[in-house]
């Protein structure tokens, strides 16, 4: 199939109208878009999400969730919704125009709100992502990050979000279409990725293009990918290093500002539609496309080839041909890559999994040339030094009086004795004096307090230091959010100081338990306020019958075991 490279509709108004709208929008209510919404809006406006004309209305949303189609029957597998807080939703009337702004307050679009509703998020999770299980990143996002209310309605585009990085590598669907027209490319295979390209991917994409007798577009996602992925700055430098491994003038690199949901089969189909909109004729779908990892039972959310199956069923309707690829492995005797089902019998197969690669990077172990290109490995090592040189956060949690601060202090001194990295202690009391002096102990205030600690710890971790935090941090969801923030930059070691509430109350070093029992302190953790016991912390220390030195030493041993401090 050859592409029709005519321009596709965008939602932008003319330059003159945009200038006028910008001024008029000064009087409108404003919604500050989240990072994910900015990605969605960009693709809505530039036609990447064609045929959508705005954020889904309630009817379209229900239909997309249940049937993967809008109410008019257009194939659309992924809800693209504008979630807002209840507070904001209350101030918006149906029929009203609102301004959609980026995080600096720059107006990007207006939206006429035609619909406002409270979605059934559990149903969305079940139908769209296959399970209402918060181990799935999109389900976690849905329940723990997205606002409670959805607004729907048509969007009027004013301007694209500004990107300061890799400008020359970013193309709208119409820019890509124009590029293909200019180059005379009629058949183009797209390769979607959120990972650095290694030899197996280079081989796979090269073969795909050769088999389809087509040109190749490396089309990596640089919007939002899976938490913990290699950041897009590093990845783009890696892609650039691989570009000249392809025959010249056959391959192009373009960055896609998509916010992935890791929705497996539905997401693969969505990706295919998005690629069709960008003027592509073929789309590579490999093993476990857009897979979210394991569910809370430790099983895969989707079968390895479910995504291929769904795309195959709909490829004709979408108007893009799927190039399905099996897992590629290296055959030692042939010094060459093969799809796993074509490996010559009796030969030696070499493979390095993603987990193994991360381990080798973390521990500074050699990564062989047959696996990746030296330029790519160099870039990855530049971003991720071995673990013993990275920053990390030790996050103590437990009741007041459990011994968190004492152990944290002992740990700090031991780490300072070792030297090598700066150490900062963010103790509960210190933080409440310096960072959170205006906060009390309501759920909202505790969350804010912990998020602040998490933010500071993530900055310390990012910059190669050691952050030791010792708040009560009673809520599992907040601890998880902090973990996610920090794990973008380094390890997060949750240490549950598991002193029982009875023992803490018996010790009552600050006399607070007595006051709490007398009702003189309200919302006291463990007495009149909840504490979610960590289910699987990296370490649990028992303080009853164990001295402080030994508890701190247990943490040191854990850090050594994790490769965070040289043994
Ligand atoms: S939280 O929930 O993580 O924000 O709490 P944190 O910042 O660690 O602050 C806990 C310290 O504040 C004292 N304190 C209370 N704790 C729990 N509940 C209530 N209502 C409360 N009021 C005051 C208490 O001394 C805690 O200090 P630690 O060091 O944990 O004993």
UniProtKB/TrEMBL annotation:
InterPro entries (UniProt xref): APS, APS_kinase_dom, ATP-Sase_PUA-like_dom, P-loop_NTPase, PUA-like_sf, Rossmann-like_a/b/a_fold, Sulf_AdTrans/APS_kinase, Sulfurylase_cat_dom
Coiled coil: none
Pfam families in the record: APS_kinase, ATP-sulfurylase, PUA_2
Domain named APS kinase: residues: 390-541
Family: Belongs to the APS kinase family.
NCBIfam families: apsK, PRK03846.1, PRK05537.1, sopT
Gene: cysC
Protein name: Adenylyl-sulfate kinase
Single Gene Ontology BP annotation: hydrogen sulfide biosynthetic process
SUPFAM superfamilies given in the database record: Nucleotidylyl transferase, P-loop containing nucleoside triphosphate hydrolases, PUA domain-like
Annotated organism of origin: Limimaricola cinnabarinus
Positions bound to ATP: 398-405
Keyword Kinase found: yes
Pathway: Sulfur metabolism; hydrogen sulfide biosynthesis; sulfite from sulfate: step 2/3
Catalytically driven reaction(s): adenosine 5'-phosphosulfate + ATP = 3'-phosphoadenylyl sulfate + ADP + H(+); sulfate + ATP + H(+) = adenosine 5'-phosphosulfate + diphosphate
One GO cellular component term: cytoplasm
EC code(s) of this entry: 2.7.1.25
Keyword entries, A-Z: ATP-binding, Kinase, Nucleotide-binding, Nucleotidyltransferase, Phosphoprotein, Transferase
GO molecular-function terms, A-Z: adenylylsulfate kinase activity; ATP binding; sulfate adenylyltransferase (ATP) activity
Domain ATP-sulfurylase PUA-like residues, every copy: 9-159
Protein function: Catalyzes the synthesis of activated sulfate.
Domain Sulphate adenylyltransferase catalytic: 170-382
